[in-house]
Amino acid sequence: MLRDFKLDPTFISVLVERWRPEIHAFHFPCGECTITLEDVALQLGLPIDRLVITRTTIVPSKKDICEAFLGKVSTKFQSARIDMKWLENNFKELPKDATDVVKEQFA
């Protein structure tokens, strides 16, 4: 599939200008957009032969999301983002006696 893809140098230049490495996303006037694994699979023609693994969680706030998925709450939110230094400081090394839940939070 990729061999049929035509490169547009102007479009690529615009994407490069709009890429924000600190958030791993493109910043457009309409909002932020990132590349998904599905995008990569479609571009490279990779077969997807199984369903994606997801789970549904309904949480009322970003602090609740942080608690639900990480087991801890950051005090350094930047809009809807968590400070990377906080993540590094809190999840750098998995405890030796970690439970399955803690392992999932560190994953």
TrEMBL record:
It comes from the Eukaryota. Signal peptide: none annotated. GO terms for biological process: meristem maintenance. Pfam families: PMD. Residues 4-92 form the Aminotransferase-like plant mobile domain. This is Aminotransferase-like plant mobile domain-containing protein. It comes from Gossypium stocksii.
